[in-house]
Amino acid sequence: MSLTTAQKLALNLAGMLMVCVVLIQVDGGYGVMPADEFDGEPSSIVHEYDPFAR
């Protein structure tokens, strides 16, 4: 998934589910997942979307 698509998905997902979401860099692209489910390398996190920080 491209960075632009992943950013839009992450922002939308965080707002709809009202959970913190992380955008991570993976082999060949980017991924989005709830922050509480991420147990990988912290350096792979590109950005964290917090719906409560607004």
Layout: helices, strands, pairs:
Elements: H1 3-17, E1 21-26, E2 29-34, E3 45-49
Antiparallel strand pairs: 1-2, 1-3
Q: What is the number of independent domains?
A: 1
Average pLDDT score: 94
Low-confidence runs of at least 5 consecutive residues:
none
Helix content: 25-40%
The best one-word shape is globular
Number of strands: 3
Order of helices and strands: HEEE
Number of helices: 1
Overall structural class, as computed from helix and strand content, comes to alpha+beta
Rounded to the nearest angstrom, the radius of gyration is 10 Å
Question: Span between N and C termini?
Answer: 26 Å
Strand percentage lies at 25-35%
| Order of strands in the sheet with most strands | 2-1-3
Largest sheet: 3 strands, antiparallel
